[in-house]
Amino acid sequence: MQVNKQIKRILLKLSGEALLGKKEFGVDPGVLIYMAKEIKSILDLGTQVGIVIGGGNIFRGEGLAESGIDRVTGDQMGMLATIINALAIQDALERQGLVARVMSALKVNEVCEDYIRRRAIRHLEKGRVTIFSAGTGNPYFTTDSAASLRAVEIEADLLIKATRVNGVYSEDPLKNQDANHFETISFDKFISKNLKVMDTTSIVMCKENNLPIRVYDINIKHALLDIVQGKNVGTLIT
After folding, report:
1. Is 210 left (phi over 0), alpha (psi -120 to 50) or beta?
2. 112: helix, coil or strand?
3. In this structure, are 50 and 124 located in the same domain?
4. Are 53 and 82 in contact (CB under 8 A)?
């Protein structure tokens, strides 16, 4: 992928924790407004935007399993949490004058559409922000894996992972200030170093489908716009 090439279609992966803002639980309305404005800036360029959202600000299946809840039940609870977050993002986008659709891997027809690949692509082609919720619809798969899967299915040019740090480091820079930052890193090197920014399943899927990943700090204003315009922001995994 050429760095100076403008991106036509992206899949943006947001963690549930990103929606916390300064809250300890739930959704910070200020973060929703901020993200909606960031997304609007790239839609105004004509970029098609798909979003996968996590649910860690409400429930995290793996964490619940550690406390004794059945893992499958915990993951199902987590999937429902992603639907709550998706509806919150949809509302924030609509308040910015955008058109957004929530699609779910689980059947919740009263509040959102079922995920159907061809319909999702049609939404994107019509300029609608398409939010993919409920992960893959299966337990034991993270929303990172769901992001890679949906990105491949909708033929995105780039998977963008929003985190709390600006890219991929040799160690967690929030814990070790001497951690090395990677401007670019290969899929194989990412896997061999056992880096934790995304799970291995999602990385392998992107590698097999030649889908580059850009990791950036969600708190940097206009970074999303810079990425879509082909600028070097964060880390490129390719």
Report:
1. left
2. coil
3. yes
4. yes
